[in-house]
Amino acid sequence: MPQRYALAAAALTLWACSTIAAADETKPSVARGRDIFMKVGCYHCHGTHGQGSGAGLKLAPDPLPTEAIAQFIRATTSTMPAYSEHILSDSQIADIAAYLGSIPAARSPDAIPALKSSSQHVKPQR
Amino acid sequence: MASQNVDRRNFLSKVAVASSAAAIPTVHAAEPANKTLPATEARRLAPPSVAQLAADTGEARPQLPASATDCGSDFMVDVIKTLNIDYIFSNPGSSFLGLHESIVNYGGNKSPEFITCMHEESSAAMANGYYKASGRPASILCHGTVGLQHASMALYNAWCDRVPLIAILGNTLDSTKRAGANDWRHSAQDPAAIVRDFTKWDDQPISLQAFAESMVQGYKISTTPPMEPIVLVADSQLQEMELVSRSGLSIPKLSPTLPPQGDAGALREAAQFLVAAERPVILADRLARTAEGMRLLVQLAETLNAPVVDLTSRQNMPTTHHLYQNAQNRKLVAQADVILGLEVTDFWGQINQFNRIDDSSSPRMKPGTKLIRIGVNDLYMKSNYQDFQRYAAVDLSIAGDGETTLPALIDAVKSAMSDNRKLSLAPRAEVYRKMYAENYEAARQAAAFGWDASPISTARLCMELWQQIKTEDWALVSVGASEGFISNWPHRLWHIDRHYQYLGYGAGGGVGYGLPAAVGAALANKALGRMSVNIQCDGDFMYANGALWTAAHHRIPLLTVMHNNRAYAQETMLLQGIANQRNRGVTTAKIGTAIEDPNIDYAKLAHGMGVWAEGPITDPKDLAPAIKRAIGVVKQGLPALIDVVTQSR
């Protein structure tokens, strides 16, 4: 299986890959970033607001710097599928970073009744 | 079969048969209607009876003579009654008409009661859920051919989940007694063959006495760990035979097998490892069948001051206990010097990391970690389906039922523990208390992210729900195929401290488990006065939504909250991953995995089946009031559904 993927990947890198519409090289845009975040499927694992889930870490609020995001998603980890420059350009990553940076801080759980009361009921010892 | 004096058609044509085998009751048959004419001729001349009409259409409609007061299937019901089987989950079918009629009339439709299901897969999933909520095995009744083929997936889930279940199949073995084309299609030489790889035992008894013995034997086999489904064929001829006398028939008493306890010497050795360990970890999976199982695990963990990772096929450890350390699973395993696995099926998977990208694997634990395994895994005995999992080379493997073995293990640990050792282990408790508080706080903080998002976050869905049920005697009866689909919020933040408050998931990964298993469990909880809650994935719902009608029809209180992410979201993620890897088409992961265009209106579907429902809810502010209204309905003893449009996970 891995060999097959490697061959497919090698063949494809020689070929003009289908990336989503190349972003213009102007400055990063929150609206475009949100759109890309949805289109290339970041939200499946990280949630539409980058809030994180059992399948992907929290990305926002307080996202990593753009370079760190780029570095991370280019590299293959065991649990997150990497996005190479063939399928996601650097400027698109910058757009995503702009979107993540625009997400407002979360409310404190203590300000949320359904989360507050649970802390009051913690009974670590039986 | 020749000695089997059972002939369904004989009841119709009143042809005499003689009795032979001593063990079989005398079967009286009335005089033939017209001795001089061959049966076919007589039939041609007589006006068509209901039975004949039915037979001509290919469906057998046997009738006992009016004078008959007892029949084979009445006896079968008496056999079933001795086993205290509360319910038979079934979709009606002609190959078990006799038994169906005996259950509802002769048996008074009580113990067992016939529960009307809309699919045999639902029947088996309901029986599964019923057992896990009540601890009492239930039965399903279906055609040995078309019904069993439908039921097979849910039987596989039950098999992987070690759930006892008695599947009774209708069949007509004697080919000369099949009324028409459908009887032929609905008959098989060996009906159980298609599920034999994932059921523990089966039989096709050819006399009523053999039925009685096989039923009791099958029940015993099914309920002996490793508990698994069994299959018993109830031949239509046996069901429909007239019984003039029951002399010679007897129902053997059930002598349940006491579950095996691990070897005492081996447990002493295990105890020494555990007591000497500086960083022991306990992994528990299908361990606690009862409240006692949970109590014993807590006792073991407290005696050792060892953290527990609950793998959640059952609720083994209270999530409220400081030694409940699921959040630290990977870290604890990586640092462990002794790992004890209690009824862990996939032990290899717990101690190794598998990398999907290049199919490589590496150990999660450090070299030299001692591995101890206690459970009934090695008493597994089928090879085709691979749910026995990858071989794990452990240091001490003890065959024994986990819950049954715990008292002896605890005693062995106490004996191996000197007073000094006890003192030196005590400070661990503080370490884990602190860790527990940190885990909980981290989860609480994480739940706040995306709290106001639409689609609604799974954290919000779970916590708004828990907020309103926590003062009840509640039970989360189903989360479908995996609690991971809702990011494990219940185990991260709910206070689950009773073994029945969480029942695991569809163990074989067969989609369509969630709703019917929830309905079966809710039926059990109805009698136990517990409020049943089901978090229902949309993809799973569409496999078996007829189960909602069963809940409405039988007045089964169940709160179903849809986790409607409008996708087979797990597959979306996997497809995204492989497309990335192949460097192409990364915007197409929703093709074939999204459940959109049109969106499904689950509330409308529920209304159509007579179930109170609201939704789709997209504004998170609307969620809590809807849950409140739904709980009001459930408290009246009825099912209710709320459709909530959610994040992927």
Relevant terms:
heterodimer, A: 126 residues, mainly alpha, Cytochrome Bc1 Complex, Chain D, domain 2, disordered C terminus, B: 649 residues, alpha/beta, Rossmann fold, 4 domains, six-stranded parallel beta sheet, globular
Q: What would you call the quaternary organization?
A: heterodimer
How do the strands of the widest beta sheet of chain B line up side by side?
2-1-3-4-6-5
- Using the CA coordinates, give the radius of gyration of chain A: 18 Å
Question: What's the CATH class of the domain at 28-105 in chain A, please?
Answer: Mainly Alpha
Largest interface: A-B, 54 and 62 residues
CATH architecture of the largest domain in chain B: 3-Layer(aba) Sandwich
Mean pLDDT level of chain A:
81
Structural summary, described in words:
The complex is a heterodimer of chains A (126) and B (649). Chain A has a domain at 28-105: Cytochrome c-like domain (Cytochrome Bc1 Complex, Chain D, domain 2), CATH 1.10.760.10. Chain A is built from 6 helices and no strands. Chain A has helices at residues 2-14, 30-39, 42-46, 66-74, 90-102, 113-120. Chain A is globular. The longest helix of chain B has 30 residues, at 419-448. Chain B has a 6-stranded parallel sheet with strand order 2-1-3-4-6-5, with helices on both faces. Chain B has a 5-stranded parallel sheet with strand order 8-7-9-12-13, with helices on both faces. Chain B has 649 residues and is α/β, with parallel strands linked by helices. Chain B is 40% helix and 14% strand. Chains A and B meet through helix 1, helix 3 and helix 6 of A and helix 16, helix 17 and helix 22 of B.
